Recover the amino acids of this structure.
């Protein structure tokens, strides 16, 4: 297949430096707003599991636990354990957006528009909130972008090593967290040129690549073998041992998330229009959450969302006209990470959605699930940021930089709502853990209500070493 070169030779330095600049600027934003310690929901459990090489809730995320444990051993002597693992999320997300910027430059040849898109993508509120706490969705986003990067190298070089690497990354992604494979369909389509016209010579090359199929399967299984850590570690009953996958049967149950009784795709747990509408509710939070952090649409926040929706459409049209094949790949990625997630997960309505449409007493999700759509919001942010630059560029070359200003405006519009470094409630999780542990008698058994009681206590016990004599029953 024909490879599109970098268009402007004058800007070769910008083309090479733009991804690094995007990653550095986003990392700065994440560090400025980084949580100083444990946060609510899964972070406390993950911190405790990472510290003890334990097994968090199904499906266990073993690769995340292993890699974050190594990372924490390197940095925690200088930064503290919780802060260093929070920083791991920030670094993963910043690199992921830098890689996406590199890909967009490769696809379109426009460094400035691509860099603006990369910045906007990283400033989406759900992406940002994943980046400044301990959360598996940050390394998952990085694996998604690495899949696309390797696929791009495969389509450019047609070298077997890149196809083998693609299979290995798919295996690693599965052992990290299933969301890392959201990019697999788009990466495979990109690597094998499915989204572009195929010449006879390319089809001959693909037939040669079929001979690699067996090796790719083996290498993919090697990557996926990280999940075996759980059955080995469970034999030693670590402090965090959810599901106790010490037998092959329990191991299979943990991987399949049997504890949660995963819903099949049919029947739907909520009407389709509720599930899709819920996704749009989350989309309304992405660009200006600081203007109105409350869930319902508002006259302050929602018009901003609509403006960036227009820029996103403009950016998508520009991308399609510039390089139709890569636009198809990105559109497949976007659809998979939005409507595909809706179809596959079959979620109940969120706690803030469906009033007046669902029957009284209808079940809702335990928490907001906007983070499930982070990859889709990254795609939308890329198109919106690039679209702003290209739209303003129509007024003249000098107008490109006001377009960049529009692309980075979500930093100011989202920061008040996503800042975990200066939020006075940031100490609430560890404070609530101490309020549970300190008054407890020696060797007490404490009955806790749910995640936000249990996980901060686990973090206090395993990370801070507080009151390990106390047992928590959820």
């Amino acid at each position: 297949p024909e490879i599109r070169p970098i268009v402007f030779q004058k800007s070769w330095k910008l083309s090479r430096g733009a991804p690094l600049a995007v990653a550095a600027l986003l990392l700065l934003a994440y560090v400025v707003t980084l949580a100083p310690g444990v946060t609510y929901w899964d972070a406390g459990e993950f911190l405790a599991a990472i510290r003890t090489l334990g097994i968090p809730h199904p499906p266990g995320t073993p690769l995340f636990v292993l890699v974050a444990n190594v990372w924490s051993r390197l940095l925690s002597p200088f930064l503290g354990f919780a802060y260093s693992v929070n920083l791991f999320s920030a670094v993963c997300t910043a690199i992921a957006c830098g890689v996406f910027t590199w890909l967009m430059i490769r696809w379109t040849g426009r460094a400035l528009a691509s860099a603006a898109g990369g910045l906007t993508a990283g400033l989406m509120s759900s992406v940002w909130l994943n980046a400044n706490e301990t959360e598996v969705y940050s390394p998952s986003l990085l694996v998604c972008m690495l899949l696309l990067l390797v696929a791009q190298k495969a389509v450019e070089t047609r070298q077997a090593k890149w196809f083998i690497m693609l299979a290995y990354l798919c295996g690693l992604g599965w052992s990290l967290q299933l969301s890392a494979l959201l990019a697999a369909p788009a990466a495979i389509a990109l690597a094998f040129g499915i989204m572009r016209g195929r010449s006879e010579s390319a089809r001959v090359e693909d037939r040669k690549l079929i001979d690699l199929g067996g090796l790719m399967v083996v290498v993919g299984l090697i990557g996926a073998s990280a999940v075996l850590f759980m059955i080995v570690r469970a034999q030693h009953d670590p402090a965090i041992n959810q599901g106790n996958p010490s037998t092959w049967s329990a191991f299979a149950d943990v991987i399949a998330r049997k504890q949660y009784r995963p819903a099949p795709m049919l029947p739907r747990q909520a009407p389709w229009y509720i599930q899709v509408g819920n996704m749009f509710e989350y989309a309304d939070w992405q660009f200006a959450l600081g203007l109105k952090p409350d869930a319902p649409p508002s006259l302050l926040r929602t018009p901003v969302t609509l403006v960036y929706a227009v820029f996103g459409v403009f950016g998508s049209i520009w991308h399609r006209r510039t390089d139709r094949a890569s636009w198809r790949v990105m559109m497949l990625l976007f659809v998979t990470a939005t409507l595909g997630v809706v179809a596959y997960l079959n979620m109940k309505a969120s706690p803030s959605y469906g009033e007046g449409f669902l029957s009284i007493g209808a079940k809702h999700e335990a928490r907001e699930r906007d983070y499930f759509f982070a990859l889709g919001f990254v795609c939308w942010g890329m198109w919106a940021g690039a679209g702003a630059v290209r739209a303003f560029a129509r007024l003249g070359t000098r107008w490109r930089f006001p377009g960049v200003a529009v692309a980075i405006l979500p930093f100011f519009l989202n920061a008040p709502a996503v800042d975990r470094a200066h939020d006075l409630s940031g100490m609430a999780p560890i404070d609530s853990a101490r309020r549970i542990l300190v008054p407890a008698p020696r060797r007490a058994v404490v009955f806790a209500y749910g995640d936000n009681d249990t996980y901060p206590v686990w973090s206090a016990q395993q990370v801070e070493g507080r009151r390990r004599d106390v047992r928590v029953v959820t």
